[in-house]
Amino acid sequence: MRDQGNTSLRKSPTSPQEAIQLYTYGLEMALTRPPWEPVQLVREECALLYGNRAQAYMAAQMWAEAAADAQCSVECKRQGNGKAWWRRGKSLVEMGRWRDAVNWVDEGLETLEGGEKGDGGKEREELVQLRKEIERYLDEEKRREGR
Description:
Number of strands: 0
Mean pLDDT: 90
Strand content: under 5%
Number of helices: 7
Order of helices and strands: HHHHHHH
Shape: globular
Distance between the termini: 53 Å
Oligomer: single chain
């Protein structure tokens, strides 16, 4: 289901509803796996599906849903999941929740810093760039309040 959702999102990035539905089906299947299946396998699969569905929600500008799914993805897999950390941070920014976004991004940077060497360098850099974007906004907000 994940691959089909990815294909759907690539074909129609401005109309992500089909991708959202496919990721949802994939999550339903993953979460109802038999209990003898390895838990780590389920966690990995759910982390990917929640992360991908968060991206699809972002394409639909459904920021609250994207933030919730990105957080679920991180809860399933904290390390090596920079995209999910970024997606929630960006969704919080889009909702105007700048302080929540800075706290989330800082936690993500700290978590990714503690990961294995070379783990998610590009993803970490994107999170650093998002942090800088947030800082610029907060600095501008302070200047406006100071007038």
